[in-house]
Each structure stands twice: as C-alpha cells, then as structure tokens.
Specification:
It holds the Pfam family Hexapep_2. The chain is mostly beta strands. Helices cover 6% and strands 39% of the residues.
Length: 185
C-alpha cells in the first residue's frame, strides 16, 4: 500500500509549511500568492507530483489529486470553482489564465474493465491513461467533464454541462454530450 498525503489548504500557503506532510518534496509552489480555500484538498502519493507555477485560486471543496506516478501542473492565474475534482494518474497540464467552473471533473484515466473483470479487485484496479493538456485562457463551464487524452486549445470555451471526449480547437466554443464545435470566434 502506498502512503498518501492529504493537504488541507488555507488562504495562505504559509499554513502548509506548518502541517505534517509526508511527501512535501513532491509539491512545488513557485509563487506564494495563492488563495486556496480552507476546504481545498490536495492528495498525493510518493511517486507523484503537483506543481503550482504561480497564483491560483480555489473555492470550497476543490480536490486536486496526483496518484500512481501522476503529474499535475497548474500554471499561473488559474481559478477553480467549488466542488471541482482534478485527478492525474498520468499527466494533467492546466495553462495560465484558465477559469474552471463549479462541479467540473477532469480525469486523465478510465478504468480498464476487461482486466478488472478477469482478475477481480483483489489484484487492484487497472486504468487506461492518457495525458490532458488545457492551454491558456480557457473557460470551462460548470458541471463539465474533461476526459483522458484531450487537448483543449488556447482561448477555447467549454459550455456548461459538456462532456469533452476529443480535442478542442483554439478560440472555439464547444458544447454538448459529446462536446461539439458550435462556432469559432
């Protein structure tokens, strides 16, 4: 079993330095002007890493997870609204000036049901992973889902409630399930 660390963040990162953190070396803050809600949770295991490249802001009940060797990178000036969850088992990159609405789910993996069906859960869960890249200046509407292997181009807008299964072109509006291009701007 891998050791995991849960960090409950506060309005100041200084708060984090006073907490007992098992894998502190796997979390990197390159700026100290972060506004993390007191209910933000960062879950990381010893083989994973999380990097905040600049100022970020989170609302209540945000969960950021990097597990099983996953890497999560969040650039500067990123806002993540309430009840959003980001889970990296491979690699998730969130570009600068990105706005993420409430209840957004970002997962770079799916369960490998064939392996789990044949071996059962006694041998652990199996996953199929592909990296996610969200470029800069992206808006992701509330209750949207971003799934593995997706690149969202610079300046794109994802309408509320959309499920993104394929790449999104830069400076375009996508909406629906599955998300489809509505128009360019």
């Amino acid at each position: 079993m891998k050791f995991k660390t849960i960090i409950k963040a506060s309005y100041s990162i200084i708060f984090l330095s006073f907490q007992k953190v098992l894998h502190w070396e796997h979390i990197k803050f390159t700026a100290f002007k972060n506004l993390l809600s007191v209910s933000t949770k960062i879950l990381i295991d010893k083989s994973s890493s999380v990097k905040f490249a600049g100022k970020i802001c989170t609302e209540s009940n945000v969960e950021l997870k990097a597990l099983n060797g996953g890497k999560l990178f969040i650039a500067e000036n990123v806002f993540i609204n309430s009840n959003s969850i980001v889970v990296a088992l491979d690699n998730i990159h969130i570009g600068s000036n990105t706005l993420i609405g409430p209840g957004v789910l970002i997962f770079d993996h799916d369960h490998d049901f064939e392996k789990d069906k044949n071996s059962g859960t006694k041998n652990g869960r199996h996953f199929v992973t592909k990296p996610i890249r969200i470029e800069s200046d992206v808006w992701i509407g509330g209750n949207s889902v971003i799934l593995k292997g997706v690149t969202i181009g610079k300046g794109a807008v994802i309408a509320a409630g959309s499920i993104v299964l394929k790449d999104v072109e830069p400076y375009c509006l996508y909406a629906g399930n599955p998300a489809k291009k509505i128009r360019s701007y």
